[in-house]
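Students often ask why we bother encoding 3D structure as a string. The short answer is that it lets us treat folding as translation between two languages. Here is a chain of 251 residues written in the first language.
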Amino acid sequence: MTNLLEFKKVKYFYQTKESEINALENVTFSVQEKTFSSIVGPSGCGKTTILSLTAGLLSPSEGEIILNGKPIQKNDSRIGYMFQRDHLFEWRTIWQNIILGLELQKKHKDPEKLAFAEELLKKYDLYNFKNKKPRQLSGGMRQRVALIRTLVLEPKLLLLDEPFSALDFQTRLKVCDDVYDIIKSEQKTALLVTHDISEALSMSDRIIILTKRPASVKKVVDISFQGSSPLLKREDEEFGKYFEMIWRNLV
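And here it is in the second language, the structure alphabet:
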């Protein structure tokens, strides 16, 4: 498989009033095209910093970050970002939320882009809700809208920053399945940051385990289950073994 994303000996420092903090130390890993990878690590180790660097919101102090053969740019348009909360605007309809990114890119009058947005709404059972407001949708449906809003921009790489953390456990399991199905169906490459080992295991082809700060890559684990969905993967007899191994590498 082709590497879509590559971190090459990335270091990141930031300043406080008191001192310089070393957040990342020689972080090196790759994410292959059309795969789902997750990053796990101790609390505060720099997982979200890695996503911000990947998105071009921050610049590395040293090292390189390569996407599809080219260096990451500031606010790189090749990247789609899904946050912890859906950030839907309550005063806009679902359709108006879906095309918000197109408006910002001045592409909201492009018939091909609009047709693609409409196709995604139909494909993922949201078309009948296009004129509703976000408050009229369930938490799971709102997350699907947020994902489709990102997919409309046709990013090369999707970044997911604990996108299910605000949901209750039962909804979270359902939404994990929904988001996983959409990402796989659209053949997108995804990188998830999560504190939840089970969530990472159930969704990922590969898990990148970080050390405590300053973070470096402690271990990379390739995952293989029989199940076809995150929920079914949790029932695989190997699930517990993977969980224990990852847990032992975190403590």
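Translate back mentally: The chain has a mean pLDDT of 90. Keep this in mind for the problem set.
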